[in-house]
Specification:
The protein has helices at 2-24, 41-138, 144-150, 154-250, 253-291, 299-311, 347-356, 366-369; strands at 329-330, 343-344, 374-377, 386-390, 396-404, 407-410, 419-422, 431-434. The longest helix is centred in the first third of the chain and has 98 residues, at 41-138. It is of the alpha+beta class. The radius of gyration is 41 Å and the shape is elongated. The strands form 3 sheets. A 4-stranded antiparallel β-sheet has the order 4-5-6-7. The protein has 8 helices and 8 strands.
Length: 436
């Protein structure tokens, strides 16, 4: 994309140069070692017409390239939004499965309590049966007539009364133990049923979430394939237009010379930009290495630390699903072309790493990071604020960090690297998130 934009700038510069030479009639003559033959008025008119026609073709092809470039940006943004939707659905599925597992564990604990209550009831019933059997086998008449009739002395009467009272207390305790055991069993049964019901509901929710996730992934994969085909078509169109553009530029020796001068300038600008980026990255990395982690930082020092951690990753490749608070990591292998051995950041992973240096843990998905801080108008954005992008009518699909002077740092898309670029306005949300 950057190459095409540079080429558009080149073409516009060449167009100005060609038109200027044609209108003055002296651009080519001054470059010759000897005066050329004096052309007739008709030769000059035909020459001007040819140059103007070629310049018009260059301008038309430049506009077509700009439109194709815009289409490529739109397709990349739509593909990123589909990926975000699939990742969010997978997060929901994992949460539902965790809830189901917890409910099953509660059900198992309730089942064990029910078993324990059942054993307690059996023991209490056995104890009561033993007391009744023992009383029956001894043949003791515990009633008032039995005490008076069978007692042989006052001492025997007193002993019989104490024994009868002991038997009565023992029976009462056994009966109370039986009742408590029954209540415990009823409570345990109720808990078991409630836990099992919770497990069933959680499992149903998990299955529903999985169905939604599967559907979202399928839709995302189908959209990715369709987008890839469309991108291939756009690339083929662009290649054809580029060939036409190259042919138009090569038709005139003056254009080729201007092209070389522009390429030299463009190379110098790219080298200077790369040197600035390396210097910024190395300086930031050095500060991060010296200062280490400091969760207690606040204010300007915290903002500087967050920006330094992000800037220290300039040049690291984009990997969908890659990166966390500890640094770059492997991404999520899927139908979008993210193999297991690729290590890097996606947009939200880079923000997680930057803010973890001051003890702030951001959510994983960019649309959730939008709710992590205070809402501020993007017109009042300050260094360290998070800025977000979305397509019309679609969820947030991209996050970047404003670093000052109209620039932002981002992990852009598959095939790109972490970079600092001017803050884009297309698709920019009117509100930013201020975490610090």
């Amino acid at each position: 994309m950057r190459l095409v934009r540079n080429r558009r700038t080149l073409v516009l510069a060449l167009l100005v140069a060609v038109l200027g030479g044609a209108l003055s009639g002296t651009g080519t003559a001054l470059a010759q070692p000897a005066p050329p033959p004096n052309p007739s008025d008709d030769d000059l008119r035909h020459s001007r017409e040819a140059v103007n026609a070629r310049a018009g073709d260059v301008a038309r092809l430049t506009a077509e390239l700009a439109e194709l470039d815009s289409m490529t940006d739109d397709l990349q943004a739509a593909l990123a939004a589909q990926r975000e939707t699939a990742e969010a659905a997978l997060v929901d599925l994992q949460a539902a499965q965790d809830a189901a597992a917890a409910a099953k564990r509660r059900a198992e604990a309730a089942r064990i309590e029910t078993q324990a209550a059942t054993v307690a009831i059996d023991q209490a019933r056995s104890r009561l049966d033993e007391i009744v059997s023992s009383t029956y086998l001894q043949g003791l008449d515990a009633g008032p007539l039995g005490l008076i009739t069978d007692a042989t002395s006052p001492e025997d009467l007193l002993a019989r009364a104490e024994y009868t009272d002991l038997v009565a207390r023992t029976q009462l305790q056994a009966q109370e133990g039986l009742e408590r055991a029954r209540v415990d069993k009823a409570n345990a049964d109720s808990s078991a049923r409630a836990a099992l019901d919770g497990a069933k509901k959680a499992e149903a929710a998990a299955r529903a979430a999985k169905a939604v996730a599967d559907e979202a992934v399928a839709v995302a994969q189908a959209a990715a394939r369709a987008q890839a085909e469309q991108l291939a078509q756009v690339a083929a169109q662009r290649a054809g237009v580029q060939r036409q553009l190259d042919a138009a530029q090569s038709a005139d020796a003056g254009l080729r010379a201007q092209r070389q001068r522009f390429d030299d300038w463009q190379r110098r600008m790219a080298e200077e930009r790369a040197a600035r980026e390396r210097a910024e990255r190395d300086a930031a990395a050095a500060r991060v290495a010296v200062e280490g982690r400091a969760d207690s930082l606040r204010g300007g020092a915290a903002v500087r630390r967050v920006i330094d951690r992000a800037m220290s990753q300039i040049g690291v490749q984009y990997v969908w699903g890659g990166g966390n608070g500890r640094g770059p990591s492997t991404g999520i292998p899927d139908a979008f072309g993210s193999p297991l051995n690729r290590v890097g950041f996606d947009c939200s992973g880079l923000m997680q790493y930057a803010f973890s240096g001051v003890g702030i843990s951001l959510p994983r998905v960019s649309r959730n990071q939008f709710h992590a801080g205070d809402r501020v108008p993007v017109s009042d954005v300050r260094p360290g604020d998070l800025i977000f992008y979305q397509n019309p009518g679609a969820p947030i699909h991209h996050v970047a960090m404003y670093v000052g002077n109209g620039r932002m740092i981002e992990a852009p898309y598959t095939g790109g690297n972490v970079r600092v670029v001017p803050m884009r306005t297309r698709g920019l949300l009117p509100q930013a998130a201020r975490v610090l």
